[in-house]
Write a structure and sequence with these properties.
26% of the residues lie in helices and 6% in strands. It has 171 residues and is mostly helical. Bound molecules: iron/sulfur cluster.
Amino acid sequence: MGVKEHMISPYLKTLGRHDELLFPDEESYKLLEKFIRKYDGRMNINYKSPKYEIESKTLANIQRCSGGRMGLVIIPNGKVTICERLINSEECIIGDVKKQSLIDIWNSDKLYNLIYPKRSKFINTDCYDCDNYEKCIFDKGLCYARSKIAYGTIYNKDPLCPRETKFMRFV
Ligand code: SF4
């Protein structure tokens, strides 16, 4: 059918309807990796094991966020947001397809300001004076869903950041 790449995403903790009982254990992830390896060289499978979240924290290991960079999410009422995990977060609603075209939303200042936030939004957090602010937040994209789950606001560090000493599970 012309499919060039398969992407596999792990089951995620959301602000909505996830169930703690459905998270795979490490053994299940190992089985998945074994299964994927069978297709090496025959199929392009984009998959990154989430193990590193448990084992180590480095800036390079913080997953990128493609929300608002590679796509948008239209929720059933027509509102548009950047992430299916943040459909209830008013600050991430950047438009409404009942009132605007999708291309206008895609090119809007509202989207730009959301994915390239000013430092002042992060006052009193580790991000505010972080030397990696641009590399991390602008180039990589901060995972607002994880920040919101961990700290109750989208404008705080990614809990996978090395500056967060606690380990929290999201996958
Ligand atoms: S403190 Fe914030 S900006 Fe700095 S690396 Fe961590 S998440 Fe990124």
